[in-house]
Design a protein that fits this description.
Strands 1-2-5-6-7-8-9 form a 7-stranded mixed β-sheet. The termini are far apart. 28% of the residues lie in helices and 27% in strands. The protein has a single domain, classed as Metallo-beta-lactamase, Chain A, CATH 3.60.15.10. It is an alpha+beta fold.
Length: 304
């Protein structure tokens, strides 16, 4: 008898968690009556040039040496944000899945560690559609993994990756990203809701326009009572140069000039409003605060 998708997932959930996944870093922080948790999806391995190439090299090298960052190879963490308010269980992005890099795609194991199953997720909200954020959308049967969830994405972001011309205009190095994004989005075409910046997409969750990294990149402010946090996605994409020199262009951004303007505005907002942040590629679980320094900013992780 054929095994159903739900039976297959239920069987996977009963398997023992390996020692590898028990070492996953996660972070928790209360937001009023809600709880924000980051779940490790593993990490990426990237050439440093992917980020550093457009930066002023004579100024870059001393900065990297100061913070102990390797120039040639980067291994950024991948943190998927999970917000539970007693009514909704919301995932912001879905990680890499099994087909991007072997060191990533660990979201299901991380969710199991915090007692969340795919059927528990009520909403999946996308910051953007790069592979490490959306390629974990489908299961082994090419069906949406979070099969009972509602899906939400900014219309601008959807339209960009849905456009058949994107694969021809995005550049050869990123063409596979366009193919992969379109494949994932096709699976939720009939079940997705669109929003724009400034909208309250769910109670206590406001969409914040942070384009530049991609054309429709979004961040999200969570607010409950007097407490708030900002889910950044890749709008602030690392804990080193992005903090020390937010005005520098990054090779990871599709529109580097716009992304730099976005970063600077975000830092102003975060510091002025004393917001907690949750960054997809920040260390220590990705949740923490921003501290101004004499020549930039510093990330203070709130690891639990």
């Amino acid at each position: 008898m054929p095994v159903s998708r739900r039976a297959f997932l239920a069987g996977c959930a009963s398997l023992p968690v390996s020692a590898q996944f028990s070492r996953h870093v996660k972070a928790d922080t209360p937001i009023g009556k809600g709880m924000l948790t980051t779940i490790s999806d593993g990490h990426l391995t990237l050439p440093g040039s992917f980020i550093f190439e457009p930066m002023p090299q004579d100024e870059l090298l001393p900065l990297l040496k100061r913070v102990g960052i390797e120039q040639k190879t980067l291994t950024p963490d991948c943190n998927v944000s999970l917000y539970r308010d007693g009514t909704h269980t919301v995932l912001f992005d879905v990680g890499s899945g099994p087909d991007f890099q072997p060191t990533a795609g660990k979201l299901l194991e991380g969710l199991e560690l915090v007692g969340v199953s795919p059927e528990d997720v009520t909403h999946v909200v996308f910051t953007h559609a790069h592979p490490d954020h959306i390629w974990g959308l489908l299961d082994e049967f090419d069906d949406p993994l979070f099969y009972d969830a509602a899906y939400m994405i900014r219309r601008t972001e959807w339209d960009y990756w849905w456009n058949p011309e994107t694969v021809n205009t995005i550049g050869e190095a990123r063409a596979s990203m366009a193919v992969g994004a379109r494949r994932q989005l096709e699976a939720i075409e009939d079940a997705v809701a669109f929003f724009d910046g400034g909208e309250e997409i769910l109670p206590g969750i406001q969409a914040v326009s942070t384009h530049g990294h991609t054309p429709g990149h979004m961040s999200f402010e969570l607010r409950s009572g007097s407490e708030a946090a900002l889910i950044l996605g890749d709008a602030i994409g690392n804990h080193h140069v992005a903090f020390m020199r937010p005005d520098w262009p990054s090779g990871s951004d599709q529109d580097a000039e716009t992304a730099a303007v976005t970063r600077k505005a975000l830092f102003d907002r975060i510091v002025a409003d004393d917001l907690k942040i949750a960054g997809f590629h920040l260390p220590g679980g990705g949740i923490g605060r921003v501290e101004p320094t004499s020549d930039g900013f510093r990330f203070i992780p709130e690891t639990t």
